[in-house]
Amino acid sequence: MKLQDPDLFRDAALIDGRWIARTGLPVTDPATGDTLGELPDCTADETREAIAAAERAMVGWRARTHAERADLLMEWYRLILGNTEDLAQILTAEQGKPLSESRGEVAYGASFVRWFAEEARRINGKIIPSPARDKKIFAMKEPVGVCAIVTPWNFPIAMITRKVAPGLAAGCTMVVKPSDFTPYSALALARLAERAGIPAGVINVLTGRPEAIGAALTESPVVRKLSFTGSTRVGALLAQQCAPTLKRLSLELGGNAPFVVFDDADLDAAIEGAMQSKFRNGGQTCVCANRILVQSGIHDAFVAGLAARVDALRVGPGTEDGVDIGPMINAAAIDKIDAHLADAFELGASRVTKPRDLPAQYADPVVLAGAKAAMRLASEETFGPVAPIFRFDTEEEALTLANGTPFGLAAYFYTRDMARAFRFGEALEVGMVGLNTGVLSNEVSPFGGVKASGLGREGAQEGIEEYLETKALHFGGL
Ligand code: SIN
Predict the structure, then answer these.
(1) What's the pLDDT score for residue 472?
(2) What's the rounded Cα separation, in Å, for the pair 367 and 147?
(3) pLDDT tens string 267-293
(4) What number does the ligand 1 atom closest to the CA of 288 have?
(5) Which atom of ligand 1 lies at the shortest distance from residue 440's CA?
(6) Residues lining ligand 1, CB < 6 A?
(7) How far apart are CA 104 and CA 81, in angstroms?
(8) Are 160 and 178 in contact (CB under 8 A)?
(9) Whose CA is nearest to atom 6 of ligand 1?
(10) Helix (H, G, I), strand (E, B) or coil at 50
(11) Average pLDDT over residues 84-92
């Protein structure tokens, strides 16, 4: 890794403005298996220190005007964008995605900081008409308090900024626990926040394994909110751990997105959308198309067109020019993909794309025809570059298949029939729908799911509400 500014590669956790360097948590490059560095495996005591620091820092942070907080966030935004290349290098080194995608993620992550800098100045309360003549009632917005932010490895920058920026805009302070696979991006962001002038203790970053840190964060009564992106299993566990202290929760959990192509779809647009939705980050996103449902009349042309595009994908180290798919995050990810493929082949699916001989850390992007509801990949998130095609005949059948999952994060469908667009879009049981588009993610649109996909929304105007409480202030005797 050749950084223009090596100071952004921080071998230390951050508590109350102090950088704490220690070995204990090795971090590896998924493309090479090389150790990038070692970070502290922070303890429960250090977690409590970070919480105490965030509590102290909140006194001054919430007292600032909204415009002051907005200015600091704007400065952070500029520094993030100004250091795109270094941030992208760090991201690719620890996460594996191609550099072009890492640069895209830096821009995506920065967009949340700008958006919530802008929203910081629009945190308005309201005056409620009182039932009594001598009274006035104000509903005021206040910061929730100290927040625990627990983020995943698949978007090591954007999942932090999507949570931290609205929290800071609202006047909250943060204890961030990034994934132990990808902590360096979080530390680089924290370094830039320091340079932007965000005071010590407002953002703390704890590196390490999740158990001790997670337990100390969830049991603390000082932490008033937890925001988590990750699996439904861990989200439910964290919710249980937060129950005794009744924390506010934002949970962005697993998905099982259907991608439905009707006979009347624009074929080329549907193939392009499927490529974007399925293969972003090598299929390691929670909004990835997990099940591609194609109507009989367009089925063969869609499968052939998609397979041709997938055969042309380049797989290799994310640092190499022209690579489309980098290594998977770890061996467990590869094992799950292999298990889904083995199960699908056993139950009658066939591979349409050409097989490749790849080193162990890479997954072969594959299109499968003949996928069936009984296969594991129909009910579980594969989280890899596998595109299983399910054939259907009627709209009712497609809807039953699409909604036939406990998850409800994203869904996509392609049609040129306007009546169907409304009918089908409304009937899908998800938080986000892409109609004739395979891309849903940006800073202005509410991101989140229903059912087992979680609670709350991120980004958009809704995103800041997650970090605000409403206080009713009654004035009597007027
Ligand atoms: C995720 O996969 O967790 C987030 C994806 C996105 O923000 O688009």
Answers:
(1) 98
(2) 42
(3) 999 999 999 999 999 999 999 999 999
(4) 2
(5) 8
(6) 152, 154-155, 158, 229, 285-287, 441
(7) 11
(8) yes
(9) 441
(10) helix
(11) 98
Q: What is the pLDDT of residue 38?
A: 98
Asked whether 337 and 328 are in contact (CB, 8 A), the reply is yes
3 state SS of 401: helix
Average pLDDT (438-451) is 98
Q: Which long-range contacts (CB under 8 A, 24 or more apart) does 16-25 make?
A: 16/49, 16/50, 16/53, 16/56, 16/57, 16/200, 16/201, 16/204, 17/53, 17/194, 17/199, 17/200, 17/201, 18/200, 20/46, 24/208, 25/180, 25/183, 25/207, 25/208, 25/209
DSSP E strands in 230-341: the ranges are 248-252, 257-261, 289-295
Q: Rounded distance, CA 328 to CA 298, Å?
A: 32
How would you class 266 by CB atoms within 10 Å of its CB: exposed for 0-12, middle for 13-18, buried for 19 or more?
middle
Q: How many CA atoms lie within 13 A of 183 on its CB side?
A: 26
Q: Find the catalytic residue in 252, 381, 395, 466.
A: 252
Could you give the CA distance from residue 428 to residue 412 in angstroms, rounded to a whole number? 9
User: pTM for the full model?
Assistant: 0.97
Distance, CA of 44 to CA of 451 (rounded, Å): 32
Task: Please give the distance, rounded to the nearest whole angstrom, from the Cα atom of residue 128 to the centre of ligand 1.
Answer: 38
Q: Where does the pLDDT of residue 114 fall: very low under 50, low under 70, confident under 90, or very high at 90 and above?
A: very high
Q: Name the residue with the closest Cα to ligand 1, atom 8.
A: 441
Which pLDDT value is given to residue 230? 98
Are 390 and 238 in contact by the 8 Å Cβ rule? The answer is no
Radius of gyration of the chain (CA): 23
Looking at residue 1, its pLDDT comes to 84
Mean pLDDT over the full length of the chain: 98
Residue owning the nearest CA to atom 7 of ligand 1? 441
Provide the 10 A C-beta neighbour count for residue 75.
18
Q: How far apart are CA 398 and CA 378, in angstroms?
A: 13
